[in-house]
Amino acid sequence: PQATGANWSDRRGDESPAIVSCQVSRMAQVLDAAAKQGAQFAIIDTPGKSTDAIIAAAKAADFVLMPIQPQLFDIETLGSLKDVLTLAGNPRAAVLVNRAPVQGKRHAETQQAVATQGFTVCPVVVFSRAAHGDAGNIGKTAIEYEPKGKAAEEMTALYYYIAIAISLRGKRHEEKRTSRR
């Protein structure tokens, strides 16, 4: 509904990566069309408060990454997120601490609180760095904006974490199919 991804793409001005803004009722059709056009990887970004969109996205996903800020009001939402994941069939998921202060240990305390509630904790922390916002303001990523910066390092580490999580899920899925034969 906020169309932040589409707005970012508009500022970017080119067609890569392809950004499609759609209503939850059209998500399955959009993902099918993308796959038919050769897309092998899709990121579904949902609003934090639209339960229908979150459930539909989680059902369609190979891996769910749930970003939270290291604030009590975000930590308190984890119970509801667990309910949403249950409704979606319990897909593989991890919680990412996002927009963490660079100073202090609030991110580590939040990761501990997340683990205590039974969630998988993403080992990568995305800190509140100017490069994230500055890059987005001009339609770039932190990696493009400041390739040798700490924000770029965080995004690279997050990319590899997700790639491994999806790869492992794919291998397990293939193993299950093979064992059924």
Short description:
The protein has nine helices and three strands; from the N terminus they run αααβααβαβααα.
How would you describe this structure in keywords?
mainly alpha; 3-stranded parallel β-sheet; 9 helices; 181 residues; disordered C terminus
- Cα shape: globular
Helices and strands: which structural class? mainly alpha
How much is the average pLDDT? 90
Rg (C-alpha, Å) = 17 Å
Number of helices: 9
Give helix and strand order, one letter per element, not per position. HHHEHHEHEHHH
- The low-confidence parts are 172-181
- Relative helix content: 40-55%
Major beta sheet, strand line-up = 1-2-3
Beta-strand content bin: 5-15%
What is the strand tally? 3
Distance between the termini: 43 Å
For the sheet with most strands, the description reads: 3 strands, parallel
Structure description:
- With 181 residues, this protein is mainly alpha-helical.
- 54% of the residues lie in helices and 11% in strands.
- The protein has helices at 4-12, 27-36, 51-60, 72-75, 78-87, 106-116, 130-137, 142-145, 150-180; strands at residues 64-68, 93-100, 121-127.
- A three-stranded parallel beta sheet has the order 1-2-3, with helices on both faces.
- The chain is globular, with a radius of gyration of 17 Å.
- 17% of the residues are buried.
- The model is unreliable at 172-181 (pLDDT under 50).
